[in-house]
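Reopening this ticket.

The earlier resolution said the output was attached, but the attachment link was broken on my side. Pasting everything inline this time so it's all in one place.
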Amino acid sequence: MNVFIYGTLKKGYHNHKQMTKPPGVATWKGRAQSVTKHRLFVAGSHGIPYLYEVGKKVTDENRRRIIGDVYEVDQAMIEKLDRFEGCPDYYYRSTIDVQMSKETSGPENEWEEQVVTCFVYFKTEHDYAPDEAYSPHL
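Inline output:
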């Protein structure tokens, strides 16, 4: 199974160690962008990213395709990520369709036509705050 990572779990960020330590196995498959547009914010002094699924409270035109990384993971890693993300109370796990980058390094300006379905963690809407509380990212 695949998971789409867009925030601090990406390589080079402070929580990436969660992807490399047991329990569970995660293998990097490449860069990707979401097929649909979403709203991504970075909030607070720790720069925590929040990805909101489009719904009743997230309907504005400031949505964009989100760029992140795809990992192939086992069941133990999914269970660990669920705990790490506070699923289902703080984030919830759903699916998202992404297009993989044709480039293995460098800028992501060409995308594969084939769509890959991945798990992703969306922020719960029950505590969605006004835009002023967040800095739009990407």
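Reporter confirms the inline version is readable. The helical segments are 17-20, 75-84. The longest strand covers residues 26-43.
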